[in-house]
Each structure stands twice: as structure tokens, then as C-alpha cells.
């Protein structure tokens, strides 16, 4: 018959992460799994509200300005609140950093756990009114402890902002949820990248994209070329090279949604390069290091790609403030190496 019987062995995100953690041995206590449960719940809540937005009048401005000086959308505020509340209530967090909040939140002792979560609750929010894909981005650190921290040796921490001013390579997990025709949660806990799709009838994220790996070279470039007049010479030269290649090579296709989660999602699946370089106008770049560049760089590397500022591995940067920005190129290994060559050769 044309109808397939439903699978009776569903791999949910929780089941998958739990089995992964068990495989890692006795050090795992299930705390990360519980923390990820809180993130899943917030993703489901936001997914539902993004869908309802037009009906219940959540579209439009909330009338406040956030720390970056941008106007906040109602959905941004809502998404931030639900995330902070769920992460605090999980009892597994010590420090929270949100794009929407100027200061880090230090969790009070009675609800404190050992993880720090940095997140952009609703990235790409300028796209909300047009119904374009948007997403939540998150990265997870463990608080400093003498035995596990590699770069800076410090005594065990109970949770301070220093716990998140660390290179992205020290994250224990990172991911995003994309709200599109379906909600897709893409996650890495440091051993590859997996994609899960929300089955709305079950209310569960089901493993649909196991072991995502980026093709070593793609055919797509994803830049906001409207910034061309501000670009530095290596970027201009690189873009020229992929648009006017020497035959028999053919030019790349352009795809730019302007919503990082959607642009990175496509790059992970199809390959190619996503870039938001620093330029003469935005001297430090636009994207935020902690909760945009680091999580996406972590996922890209875990999927076999490269993430660089042009001259430096993104995951090696040591942040000095929680909202700092950085230049970003990420995607297929060969494509990103090409742009790095231009940074070495063109000045
Ligand atoms: P936001 O955090 O204010 O939503 O800005 C981040 C977004 C990213 O999703 C996207 O990659 C970028 O800004 C697009 O910027 P631009 O509109 O300058 O191309
Ligand atoms: Mg953002």
C-alpha cells in the first residue's frame, strides 16, 4: 500500500543525547540532558508563538530598545523571558547571557547548577513580519573547574561572568532551533552534529538528520553584498574570484536570507560559504561572538567545516566582553580556505 506504517522506534532528542552521554561513561550525570530539555521546551514555546504571532498581535514593536540600540520586537521579549525562566527553573544553570539583556544573569544559589548558557533567543527578528525563517541560537559552557578547563587555570567557580569569557572551543554543546515550515533543532555535544525535527503531534524533536557533515566544497556564497562599498580588499577580491572564475570553472550561486540560522542551516546541509566580514563601516563586524559566532563555529567544525575571522580560528578567540562582535566566514572546508588565502595574499 502507499501508506507506510509509523515507526515504532522513534529516536527523540532526549533519548539520543542520553545514550550519547551514557556512552561517555560515569562522568555524565544526566544534567546536560535535563538542561537540553529546558531548551527544547523553550523552542517548542517559541515555535508555537512564531506561528501564532500574526493572530495574537505579537508582531511589531514592544517599544523598548535593547543594548545594541535596536528596537525590540514583542516576540524577542517573549522569547527571552521564556528562555531565562526555563533555564533558571531547570536548576542546571549558573550564568545566563542573552542578546536581549545588557548584563549576564547570575543564578541565585538555591537554583544554581554547573552550566552557563549564552543565547540569542530570536535571531533574525527583522524578518519576523515577512514570515521568513528565524531561530534561537545557544552555546553551553560548564562553569570553570580546575580539572576540566584547558586554557586558563582557575579555582572552581560557582558562576561569574568569567565563566563565559572563554574561547568557544571550551563549549560543551551548541546548537540552534530554526522556526520555519517546521521547527528544526540542530545540536552538537562535541561528537558530531545531529538535526531533529519537531513532530508537532507528539511534541517531540525526532532525529531526522543524523550526523550532518558539510560537503568539502559547495556552489553557494552567502554574503550581504549591499555592504560591498565597505568591504576590505581580501573580501572584494574573493567575491570577484567566485563570481568571475577562469573557465572551465563556473560562478557560484548567491543565497542570502539575512537570518543567520537559516543561512547557516543551508550551508551545513548544502555546503558553500556564509560570510559576515568586518568592514570599513562595522570595524568589528556585526555578528555577536558569544551567542552567534561561537555556537555556529562550533557546529560548523563539528560538521567537518571551517569557521574563521579571515585570519584566525573563531573558536580560539578569548572574549573580553559578553556582547562583543566578530568577523565571520564559515562553511565548506575548501571554500573557507579560499577566502583565508585572499586574507594572506591581498591587503
Ligand atoms: P539580529 O541579532 O539583530 O537579528 O542580527 C543578526 C542577523 C543575523 O541573523 C544575520 O546573519 C544578520 O543579522 C543579517 O544582517 P544584515 O541585515 O546586515 O545583512
Ligand atoms: Mg542576533
UniProtKB/TrEMBL annotation:
**Record keyword Hydrolase present:** yes
Q: What positions does the domain Fructose-1-6-bisphosphatase class I N-terminal occupy? A: 11-210
Tell me where on the tree of life, at the top rank, the source sits: Eukaryota
Which cofactor(s) are needed, names only? Mg(2+)
Write out the GO MF terms.
Answer: fructose 1,6-bisphosphate 1-phosphatase activity; metal ion binding
Localization recorded for this chain is: Cytoplasm
**Enzyme nomenclature, EC number:** 3.1.3.11
Fructose-1-6-bisphosphatase class 1 C-terminal domain location = 214-343
Q: Which UniProt keywords apply?
A: Carbohydrate metabolism, Cytoplasm, Hydrolase, Magnesium, Metal-binding
Q: Which InterPro entries match?
A: FBPase_C_dom (IPR044015), FBPase_class-1 (IPR000146), FBPase_N (IPR033391), FBPtase (IPR028343), Fructose_bisphosphatase_AS (IPR020548)
Q: An example Gene Ontology cellular component term from the record?
A: cytosol
State the pathway, as annotated in the record.
Carbohydrate biosynthesis
Could you describe the subunit structure of this protein?
Answer: Homotetramer.
- What is the name attached to this protein's record? Fructose-1,6-bisphosphatase
